[in-house]
Write a structure and sequence with these properties.
about 170 residues; alpha+beta; 7 strands; seven-stranded antiparallel β-sheet
Length: about 170
């Protein structure tokens, strides 16, 4: 596996709220665009990470986190149906609110270790795939509320990496 680019290391390994960090980096020029939010079967690796049967439906949410009007992060969340009962049922109707901000504001939700990963083009929505795109890096982690888990994957997009390079050269 290739080594993680220096400018991305902090962002990939940070255990805090990515939403808050992006809001700060963008000077408040931050927004969320929901690409989809619907009941589907998770990918096999997602089901395994959540320890749920692969045929079980979950609420799949895909968003783009924008900073300074640029697509900075693609995020995919898998929320199993049993997780969305009781106290967390409000997560079914997030709209364009960032999921991360809600997860980090609840002290009963605990984040498991962050797992870094190289991300294949095929894992992105077609609208984000580029023929000559450099290797993409992302991470995922499970947020636990009791025994229930929510998987959150985040992929740092080229515009974000460019913003880091610009910041370093200024």
């Amino acid at each position: 596996m290739l080594s993680v680019p220096f400018q991305l290391r902090h962002w990939l390994q940070d255990r805090g709220s990515l939403t808050r960090s992006l809001q700060k980096k963008s000077g408040g020029d931050f927004s969320v665009t929901v690409l989809k939010q619907r009941w589907e079967r998770p990918r096999l690796d997602e089901a395994r990470a959540l320890n749920i049967p692969p045929h079980q439906f979950a609420l799949i949410r895909e968003v783009i986190l924008h900073g300074n009007n640029q697509p900075w992060v693609y995020a995919r969340s898998v929320l199993p149906q049993h997780t969305l009962n009781g106290h967390l049922r409000f997560l079914r109707k997030l709209g364009n609110k960032p999921l991360g901000a809600l997860l980090f504001s609840n002290p009963s939700i605990k984040r498991e270790p962050v797992v870094l990963q190289r991300v294949a083009q095929s894992r992105l929505p077609a609208s984000l795939q580029q023929a000559e795109q450099p290797p993409l890096w992302g991470r995922y982690s499970i947020f636990r509320y009791g025994k229930n888990g929510i998987l959150v994957s985040e992929v740092f997009l080229p515009a974000f990496i460019q913003s880091l390079t610009t910041t370093l050269t200024e």
